[in-house]
Amino acid sequence: MGTIYITGHKNPDLDSVCSAYGYAKLMTLQDPDNTYIPVRCGHLSDSIRSILEQLDIDIPIYLRDVYPKVGDVMLQSEHRINAADPLTSVAAVYGEDTPSAIPVYEDDEFYGLLTVDDITNWTMRELSRDNKITTIPKVREIMTNHGDAIDADELFDEAKKMLQNSGKRGLPVYDEKGYAGYVTRRCFLNIPRKNVILVDHNESRQSIRGIETANIVGIIDHHRLDAIKTEQPIFICAEPLGSTCTIVYQQYIRNNRTPDPATAKVLLTGLISDTLILKSPTTTGDDVVAAHVLASMCKVNLEEYGLSMFSRVEGLKERDPETAILSDFKTYTENGLRIGIGQCEVTTLKDIADYKNDYAAALEKVRVAQGLNWAVLMVTDVIHEHSALLCTEHRSNRRLPYEAVDKNVYDMPHVMSRKKQLLPEIIHAVGDV
Ligand SMILES: [Mn+2]
């Protein structure tokens, strides 16, 4: 298969980035003949970046999309022809090969692409004049293919059209470093699908751009299943555990492998982030076991490491309210109402009075922008297992089972999970009376 990209979802969180990293390490051990590259399809928040930097690993690179590109099909030539060479040096190439285009160099610089059309046209012209070829020209004297070029990043379909419309047999390809290769019409016979493994998500709308053109070769996830139809049988491991990193850890065990200490710490990081240091009600026994084994492998104290990790998460006062709300915002449709629920993790709720007005204003802005009826933001103190809920103005507010501590602000002791604890109350609140 060659190269396989492993990606988490858009708006990457720690579970998504860490599980991609850990699974790439495992697959590299399992299948050394192919190259597994962990990537992320979105930008990292400052706090996630600072947590990843502490891990002393190569942070998965940002990959904008997986659309097929010119760079995926371009050719390199084994033949080295110079512009000043006589045409007979090209004839030597045709003794062993029949390329429709050959890159030509001058000194060490790329000069242009010589195509068979150039050779045929020149030969026919000579023959039509004297019925024989009297002089052997230099390669550069017969080349007509100058100026046109194509970008390595150009989309496959676009490039195919460009080449067809150019009437040329081939075009040189350039990337940011200069000449990179060349393409001929034959390069565009088959679409080069990129191989992708999805971790921590399986829905295409949450995935990397261009996923519909890719070859999905695996899914490792702990969310509801709404996966894309695939052409081939693929490996899927989906379990309702607290984090995808736990599932990745179990894949190590299943394959009789042990993660190295650095990778164990990466997996632990994603695991305690998604399970809020094993306190979220989404936490299962499997997560608890995995967390303790991983902590002993990388020699950290689970609780201390978790607290130090969450202490790196910026306070809401320091963040831009709209960005903070949208960094983890999910929408639902219930009883004909469009509802948005955001969640932010903090380490104290004591300073909520300092930012609640700014966040309430930003929440209303998000509600209007997304055409929602009701938007709420759950601010979760992961240390004290306590949340606060900010709501936009809506008649359902008074039907929530929480104590109002301020206008449209509710107190939620022991509530940690949006999915398991808050969502059922929201659904109940908008239900028929
Ligand atoms: Mn996750």
Structure description:
- The protein is an alpha/beta fold and 433 residues long.
- It folds into three domains: 3-67 and 194-310, inorganic pyrophosphatase (n-terminal core), CATH 3.90.1640; 71-187, CBS-domain (Roll); 316-430, DHHA2 domain (Diaminopimelate Epimerase, Chain A, domain 1).
- The protein is built from 14 helices and 18 strands.
- The chain has helices at residues 14-30, 46-54, 70-73, 87-94, 116-130, 139-142, 156-166, 244-254, 261-274, 285-297, 302-310, 321-326, 352-369, 418-429, and strands spanning 3-7, 35-40, 61-62, 81-82, 101-106, 109-115, 150-151, 170-175, 178-184, 195-199, 215-221, 235-238, 329-334, 337-346, 374-381, 386-391, 403-406, 409-413.
- The strands form four sheets. Strands 3-2-1-10-11-12 form a six-stranded parallel beta sheet.
- Helix 13 (352-369) links the parallel strand 14 and strand 15.
- Helix 1 (14-30) runs parallel beside helix 8 (244-254) and helix 1 (14-30) runs antiparallel to helix 9.
- The longest helix has 18 residues, at 352-369.
- It is elongated.
- The relative contact order is 0.10.
- The mean pLDDT is 93.
- Manganese (II) ion binds at residues 15, 200, 222, 243-244, 274.
Quickly list its features:
binds manganese (II) ion, inorganic pyrophosphatase (n-terminal core), single chain, 23% strand, 6-stranded parallel sheet, 433 residues, CBS-domain, 35% helix, Diaminopimelate Epimerase, Chain A, domain 1, 3 domains, 18 strands, alpha/beta, 14 helices
